[in-house]
Amino acid sequence: MSDTDRPVDAIDARILAALSDDPRATVIALADRTGLSRNTVQARLAKLEQRGALRSFDRRIDPAALGYPLTAFVLTDVTQSQLAPVSAALAEIPEVLEVHGLTGVTDLLVHVVARDADDLYRIAGMILDIPGVTRTTTSLVMRKLVDYRIDGLVQRRIDSR
Q1: C-alpha–C-alpha distance, residues 122 and 139, integer Å
Q2: Integer Cα distance of 17 and 135 in angstroms
Q3: Which residues does residue 108 pair with via DSSP β-bridges, in sequence order?
Q4: Residue 96: beta bridge partners?
Q5: Cβ atoms within 10 A of the Cβ of 5, count?
Q6: 34 and 82 in contact (C-beta within 8 Å)?
Q7: What is d(CA 77, CA 124) in angstroms, rounded to the nearest whole number?
Q8: What is the pLDDT along the chain (161 residues), one digit of tens a residue?
Q9: 56-63: long-range contacts (C-beta < 8 A, 24 or more apart)?
Q10: 3-state secondary structure the chain
């Protein structure tokens, strides 16, 4: 198992929990909160960043605050030989927040945001116009019922020591 595939240990999870509670905490504050030395916290944070275990700050920004209050998911079927160029083209559309490759009845789940219904129509059309995209189905998010969360999994890792 490579270092990037290995789950964090309970000590890393304690640091992540403290960071989740206060994302702006300094290394010294995290050390105080976790009962670890400053050097330990700093070294482990560096390793977590290197492994890709910490995501970027921009995931915390609400698109509605930027003028994009509509969220939708575009189920996208693609010609399999065109998957790489389709993915590259999707990455060029600023309103596309993330793209997941799927198994099952569709190939890609494309998470998009839009200013309004007309803007969503434009974005969906851009996706459909990408060479290699054969079909799309757009579903508008009416309400978020469970927000993105990770604290329960972090706590489970802490408790597993």
Answers
A1: 14
A2: 41
A3: 76, 101
A4: 112
A5: 7
A6: no
A7: 13
A8: 455 567 889 999 999 999 888 888 999 999 999 999 999 999 999 999 888 888 777 777 899 999 999 999 999 999 999 999 999 999 999 999 999 999 999 999 999 999 999 999 999 999 999 999 999 999 999 999 998 888 899 899 888 86
A9: 57/23, 59/148, 60/23, 63/97, 63/113
A10: CCCCCCCCCHHHHHHHHHHHHCCCCCHHHHHHHHCCCHHHHHHHHHHHHHHCCCCCHHHHCCHHHHCCCEEEEEEEEECHHHHHHHHHHHHCCCCEEEEEECCCCCCEEEEEEECCHHHHHHHHHHHHCCCCEEEEEEEECCCCCCCCCCHHHHHHHHHCC
- Of 51, 53, 63, 60, give the one whose Cα is nearest residue 22: 60
Q: Which amino acid does the sequence have at 77?
A: D
> Hey, what are 53's tokens?
């275990």
Q: Specify whether the CB–CB gap between 16 and 23 falls below 8 A.
A: no
HSE-CB at 71 with a 13 A cutoff on CA atoms is: 13
Cα–Cα distance between 94 and 110 in angstroms, integer? 12
